[in-house]
Amino acid sequence: MIKLKTERFxxxxxxxxxxxxxxxxxxxxxxxxxxxxxxxxxxxxxIAVDDxxxxxxxVSPFKYFPTYGFELSDExxxxxxxxxEEELEVxxxxxxxxxxxxxxxxxxxxINKNKKIGVQIxxxxxxxxxxxxxx
Length: 135
What we know:
By secondary structure, the chain is mainly beta. The protein has a single domain, classed as Roll (BH3618-like), CATH 2.30.290.10. Helices cover 5% and strands 39% of the residues. It contains one helix and eleven strands, in the order ββββββαβββββ. Strands 3, 4, 5, 6, 7, 8, 9, 10 and 11 form a nine-stranded antiparallel β-sheet that branches. The chain has a two-stranded antiparallel ribbon with strand order 1-2. It starts with a strand and ends with a strand.
């Protein structure tokens, strides 16, 4: 059991088995170990284990963008050690945008929920933007 003391969340207790390892890191964050915690359904927190003040709101994009989709490169599938699509979860970061909230559909997080390995990828697809308003 690992105890994290934070100003935002108070004391968080996590099991080693909950830690998601991002071997390629997350751009802008110098950490590789993260944990997901519930916020307000369907929103969750992605929290850095090594600095729990570094946290961001994430959500599955499919609730708000049902046609959202992309293909993973063989390299990313290899990093994720994924054998089936069912092993994978997809999240996007949420951010304040004008008077509302937007999703970063351009840089989703893909997590192998069984192996606890994650990556953040940058999509070349022009249909998606870094700030897609959620209505």
